Amino acid sequence: MVDLGSVEAIPPAETADVELYHPKSWLTKYVFCQDAKVIAIQYSVTALAIGFVALVLSWLMRLQLAFPGSFAFITPSSYYQFITMHGMIMVIYLLTALFLGGFGNYLIPLMLGARDMVFPYVNMLSYWIYLLAVLVLIATFFTPGGPTGAGWTLYPPQAILEGTPGQDWGIILMLISLILFIIGFTMGGLNYVVTVLQGRTRGMTLMRMPLTIWGIFTAAIMALLAFPALLVGAIMMLFDRLLGTSFFMPAIVQAGEHLKYGGGSPILFQHLFWFFGHPEVYIVALPAFGIVSDLISTHARKNIFGYRMMVWAILAIAILSFVVWGHHMYISGMNPPFGFFFATSTLIIAVPTAIKVYNWVLTLWRGDIHFTVPMLFALGFIVTFVNGGITGLFLGNVIVDVPLSATMFVVAHFHMVMGVAPILVVFGAIYHWYPKITGRMMNETLGRIHFWITFLGAYAIFFPMHYLGFMGAPRRYYEMGETAFMPASAMTLNIFITIAALIVGAVQLAFAFNLIWSLFKGREAGGNPWRATTLEWQTPQTPPGHGNWGKELPVVYRWAYDYSAPGADGGFLPQNQPPAAPASRAAA
Amino acid sequence: MSIMFVFLGVIGTIAAWWLSRQRLASKPWLEVGAIDDAGASSLPAAKIGLGVFLAVVGALFALFFSAYVMRMHMVETNLADWKAPPLPGLLWLNTGVLILSSGALQWARGAARHREMEALKAGLIAGGVLSLAFLAGQLLAWRNLVDAGYFLASNPANAFFYLITGVHGLHVLGGLAALGATLAKAWDGVAFDQMRLSVELCAIYWHFLLLVWLVFFGLLLLTDPIRSESGLIAAICRVF
Prior knowledge:
The complex is a heterodimer. The relative contact order of chain A is 0.11. In chain A, strands 2-3 form a two-stranded antiparallel sheet. By secondary structure, chain A is mostly helical. The longest helix of chain A has 37 residues, at 76-112. Chain A has helices at 26-31, 36-66, 76-112, 120-139, 170-198, 211-243, 266-299, 307-320, 336-348, 350-364, 373-396, 398-404, 408-438, 444-471, 488-521, 583-587; strands at residues 2-4, 253-254, 257-258. Classes of the chains: A mainly alpha, B mainly alpha. Strand 1 (2-4) of chain A pairs parallel with strand 1 (31-33) of chain B.
């Protein structure tokens, strides 16, 4: 073993008391609070609440697809509005906000041994602007014409033309909400990145950081560089809609009449949108990758396999994800060499991703696997992610994508890979860190019920969709009607999917109940119920007090994965445990 | 997207340089013991925060420029629809004013270092006034264009011009808010050690906005309808 420096404990860094923000009233302690832990909870609760709205929207869509025409209030317009809002909320307002604003805020300072984020005030603003963005988004449901029905990609020209639902106020508020979200996120993102750069405690080198932090850190950088593309697109479209410019609007004849637009390029918007849109997939996936690595290592009581490779793979994915956006635009028409380039770069991403999957599996290999609820969700993630990833390999090829692009196959693919897989990690992570956040365990039985129904139910929903896609069932259609290529059994399949979706949605209520019930009635957790090594489990108080640590910051002596340490008490060594006295040094 | 990729290349180089000093090839599972230096920079967090923020703003402008150039490039398929407005000569003056304001803040930065309060205040005020003059000049340039019949919505080239100059102006305005706060500090007699960082951050931000403006102004010159008749500039345009 390489021994670095002296064995004696080095003096911990102390933070002067003045540096810390102290809440003075109830309002600044629980509402306008600058403590990252409170902000994290605010972010998470808001994201989960708006996510629940999106879940209900998906129910409505499924009801329409299974029983077309049975529900008077689901008109073609409202169906498109449900699709649009469901996608937008899930991708941006739920997943991005929850992983970075929620888990990022809670875990970055605690896992790095910091007292708080480096810019707490900006961090607080970040949440309130996010909340404003969410409120503006909700407001679109109550405006004349309702929310926009342009699809979550908001492609022009149709997004702002008459005839698209929500053309009046929906699209305007949607764009404003996105602009607000990006401003709010940038404030938070600055914090996440600079805290990782500057806020680490003594001994916490980059290569000693838990992979959760690597994932969140890299995703935050990617988001800071990718969201501006959406911002540019949103601003320019807002100009087109409000001021009559023609950034994205070509000359259009509508109902025999020349519109005032002319000279714009819809393809330009697609480039901007997907320049953001593809990195966005990994902005959601990388934190999930990181968290899952930690869950697996902790609950299999084994050090993570190939830590270095895991870090390098995260970095490689981050770089590659910026040069593949064109694969979303194959059917928009593309120069064949460009198609070749984007197909190749897309397929290359499979390499670092596969490295990660192998490393998770090899971490499990001969591990002391505890089938706790977080572990179940982590395992569910691996399977689902591999499933969704493999269909991604199909779709990455131009020749396969072109016929499949407009079918349910794509719906199945992206729900598996960036819907179900990350949300399984979200659940696993909540079950895992809930004891630290509240001091109580979540109910295990309810958790298992939640897992199995969610996991199996998600497969019941999305597996048949692949099949529907191969048959040619188009996505985005309000109803299928009579077609030559769709057998009657396809309709039965649609009903089956809808029933599964209703059940999976309903079981999320059990999760919500568990969250609240355990807050009061859950079993006392103690400081470190999972016997984990990372710093957040070593805080003097649980839940961690203001300033996270007592008088002194922890000092880190080892990496984050010293499980299965021979002779160690309980088989694991926390990161802040000093090396044994020199006598045992020789033995090591 | 070529401009965005040049920008990402710069960011990537900085990131690679930084990562190369973080011992990414070490084997942390073998290294037990104290490491006093966790690899954090000795720079204050606020400065690094500004650096990260400028990277975001840089990405924003790089994408605007990319969109501008991509849209211009599409001219070849439809020559008629892209008519760049003639550049108001006033822009040259505005450019000079912005350079001066950047210089004034640099001067204030030096004054903060040498603990000269009067010079510091003068530099900050000069920087602020010159920036306001720049903004007024930009508004005047808009006015001139509108008077000459080049409206926002009449051509994509016009729209890009108004939009990008507008976004740039908003960033100057945001900087002026920070500059105002710094000035207030100077008047309250805050200690030099605390002042210095604020002044430095302002100066860096102004240099950055100057750089953004110069790049955009350069782009405009390259695509100016009067100048681009010459073969050389048209050839350069095609490279982009």
